[in-house]
Amino acid sequence: MSDFNGNFWHLFVAGVTLVGIVACLILLWFSGKAKAMTANDNTTGHVWDGDLREMNNPLPRWWVGLFIITIVFALVYLAMYPGAGNNAGQFGWTSAGQYTAEVNKANAEVAPLYAKFAGMTAEQVSKDPQAMAIGDRLFMNNCAQCHGSDARGSKGFPNLTDADWLHGGSPEKIKETLVQGRIGQMPPMAAAVGSPEDVRNVAHYVLSLSGSPHDSLRASLGKSKFGACAACHGMDGKGNPALGAPNLTDDIWLHGWGENAIVAMINNGKVNQMPAQASKLTEGQIHVLASYVWGLSNNKPTAN
Questions:
Q1: Is 24 annotated as a binding residue?
Q2: Is 291 in contact with 135 (CB distance < 8 Å)?
């Protein structure tokens, strides 16, 4: 794609645009000057349906006038707005600038609504029906694409309703995730673990940590090799929120369950990214959205 970022292409676009306009002028001039071979009755000699003859009348003045107005408008437009290569135009208009202005205007209009919740704690906001209705809309527009409309996630996308958090589930941590985003990286560990058989043994040991079905002999052999993984997941396999290392003892599998899935993870590693939302959402929106997400796993209905 770097081939399309050179200085040549903006000149190419500007050239094609201007040549097209000039070509329209030449065509208009030529059509007014060129004389067609006609008969004495001002016809071209073409006859259809027995008596329908083609005349050689000049272009209507109103049509020529509109053509000229269109060309003048195109030249004025190119002078005022970007259209000729990388020329910004006299107005300095950009689609990104217009988008930003419209977003800022909309945010200013709804700011008083979010100010109502600014002094409330996440727990208080999560119990406010109006705030939760707003939070639900924010979630649907910005989070549901990955985490699902019910926030239960899917393979590779965390479930936000189960109180299992890679980086911690406090309102402050949720806000931090929304503002900064997250990049979770599990490096390929096969070389550190040992042979392919060692990798399989470690996979069964990991399964044993959560009480999942496993081969107990392989699990016992894999325990000593698990030391290569303990730097992140801990010797007890309970993970490390500071690193975003998952708890391997809770039977919650973000990228799939079973020997094959764990072997693939050890062999290939995994990189996941949660995009930062600070550039899209205001501070007030993030506060409401974080409170909404926090409430999904902390405000569960109790049985009567």
A1: no
A2: yes
